[in-house]
Design goal:
The chain has about 325 residues and is mostly helical. The protein has a two-stranded antiparallel sheet with strand order 1-2. The chain is globular. Helix content is about 40%, strand content about 5%.
């Protein structure tokens, strides 16, 4: 008798099977005890014990084929397919589904997207930080870094990447394009009335480091009604024979790091001449560092070839903030 008070039927033995199958008696079969009754709203199906078998259907006697009914599946532990789960997460905006997707942009790429987005005017910095849920301190630290992997642990990196990915997934440009008329931009940045010594043969003396010029470029491109294409056109005009400077040249120059890294680039020379003309046109005084650079570099930074040095194995070359080399013992 079961714990619920239902009597157990007697065990079936080999005498219950036809003589045609008696040569190979089957294992003892135990009937499944009926599940205890529960109220409908608390019904819980009971699984049969592991040492019990589900009763077989009656044998089809007198035929050459013996057929057993396929047991009914009582329980299933199958999980929701991964694809369906991700689709559901995408529709519902589930954060867990988003975390399954890898971050494919480097830190530098995310920083460039942030700068371009804020430069578009769609949001200001405060609105953007509120949208991605990041503090201004975290954002400030991330944006000051340079390098593909510099800032991977900063929360701004992941939050901004997911922000731009959501825009792209919804069919919106990750970074809105500025609607700036070429004529208006050209008029704003026209420095043709200002002439520099040595400009006629592309030998203007340079008193900014490559890092200084990179900072000026980044700040300038964040100004309203300024586009990268327009900037490249203007710095190409700074040569005696106008040059066409490609966006890749600008990207390569901006990706470098070091006071003299990129000194042979056309972007370096053209940008320096452009910003120097702009400074004179706007009647801005020379900065303190600019005056110090003139004292360090008598004839300006050499841009004819990359700087290289020959030292012993126990020595290394260290450049200061002006790009001036010093040899130190390791």
């Amino acid at each position: 008798m079961t714990s619920s008070g239902v009597p157990m039927p007697p065990q079936a033995t080999s005498n219950n099977f036809p003589a045609s199958l008696s040569a190979s008696p089957p294992a003892t079969i135990y009937p499944v005890p009926p599940a205890p009754l529960h109220p409908a709203n608390n019904f819980v199906p009971m699984a049969p014990p592991d040492n019990h078998r589900v009763p077989l259907a009656p044998l089809a006697l007198g035929t050459s084929n013996v057929h057993f009914e396929k047991p009914m599946t009582l329980f299933s532990n199958a999980k929701e397919p991964t694809t369906a789960k991700r689709l559901h997460s995408a529709i519902e905006g589930d954060r867990e589904g988003e975390d399954d997707m890898p971050i494919t942009d480097s830190c530098d790429v995310v920083r460039r997207k942030i700068n371009a987005f804020l430069n578009s005017g769609e949001m200001n910095a405060t609105e953007f930080l509120r949208e991605i849920g990041v503090t201004s301190d975290s954002y400030g630290r991330f944006m000051k870094l340079k390098g593909r992997y510099s800032g991977v642990d900063n929360q701004t990196y992941e939050a901004a990447f997911r922000f731009f990915r959501k825009r792209k997934a919804s069919g919106v440009d990750e970074v809105p394009r500025k609607k700036v008329k070429k004529d208006e931009e050209a008029k704003k940045v026209d420095v043709s009335d200002t002439q520099l010594e040595g400009e006629e043969n592309d030998s203007v003396q340079i008193y900014d480091t490559c890092d200084d010029v990179r900072q000026k470029i980044a700040a300038y491109l964040r100004e309203p009604n300024i586009t990268q294409a327009g900037f490249l056109r203007e710095i190409g005009k700074m040569f005696s024979e106008h040059k066409t400077i490609q966006s890749k040249q600008l990207k390569d120059f901006q990706a470098k790091e070091g006071p003299l890294a990129g000194n042979t680039s056309s972007v370096f020379y053209g940008s320096y001449v452009f910003f120097e003309k702009l400074r004179i046109q706007q009647k801005d005084a020379k900065s303190k560092k600019r005056l110090e650079m003139e004292a360090v570099w008598d004839n300006g930074i050499d841009r004819s070839r990359p700087r290289s040095y020959i030292v012993r194995n126990d020595e290394e070359v260290v450049l200061d903030q002006y790009g001036h080399p010093s040899i130190l013992r390791k």
